[in-house]
Amino acid sequence: MGFLDADLPRLKILDFSIRLLLIPFNLASIWIAVNNRQNNIDYGELEFADFIGLKYMVCVCAVSAGYALFAAVSSWLRCLVTKAWIFFVADQVLAYLMVTSLATIVEFLYLAYKGDQVVSWSQACSSYGKFCSRLKIALSLHVIAVGCFLVLAVISAFRVFRRYNPPFVPSKEGEQAAAT
User: Fold this and answer.
1) Phi and psi angles of residue 77, each rounded to the nearest 5 degrees, phi first
2) Long-range contacts of 146-149, Cβ-Cβ distance < 8 Å, separation of 24 or more
3) Cys-Cys crosslink for 25: which of 39, 68, 84, 145, Cβ 3.0 to 4.6 Å?
4) pLDDT band, residue 125 (cuts 50/70/90)
5) How far apart are CA 60 and CA 146, in angstroms?
6) pLDDT tens digits, residue range 50-82?
7) Which PANTHER family does the protein's record reference (predicted)?
């Protein structure tokens, strides 16, 4: 464990940097999604508030951006740094929430572009191209934020589990010597 201890300050800086890096990506995804609307003469206006999946993504992005800021600031406070389990659990939960919101947007865009003939949903992006294009941009930014949170989940897991010794596994030679 000695050589890992030397890398811990670098790991702390990496953790802090990633947390700060993902905030603008989340905020940009929120801004693009919330301000996304398009009017079509034939079908009417389409806007963010019409879709629960987009609202879910915006809520998850807002929570994760707020948490990332809180965690970045608190990573430099001595009283909270010792609470590695709290950050581990929170990072894991938010990483999973980010993945689920990503899946929601991907499915939404898939249906908007392809439709679903079985349930009589026609594609919408041919009529609302600007709306779909902006959602693809929000999706791209959200993918980057999700990637950042997955890396943070791994870092926080490392921070927690590095404190414990690996389980003892007897070697093959020791087992053979005991058997004879």
Assistant:
1) -95, 125
2) 146/95, 146/98, 146/99, 146/102, 148/18, 148/19, 148/21, 148/22, 148/25, 149/22, 149/64, 149/91, 149/94, 149/95, 149/98
3) 145
4) confident
5) 11
6) 889 899 999 999 999 999 999 888 877 766 556
7) CASP-LIKE PROTEIN 2C1-RELATED (PTHR33573:SF30), CASP-LIKE PROTEIN 4A4 (PTHR33573)
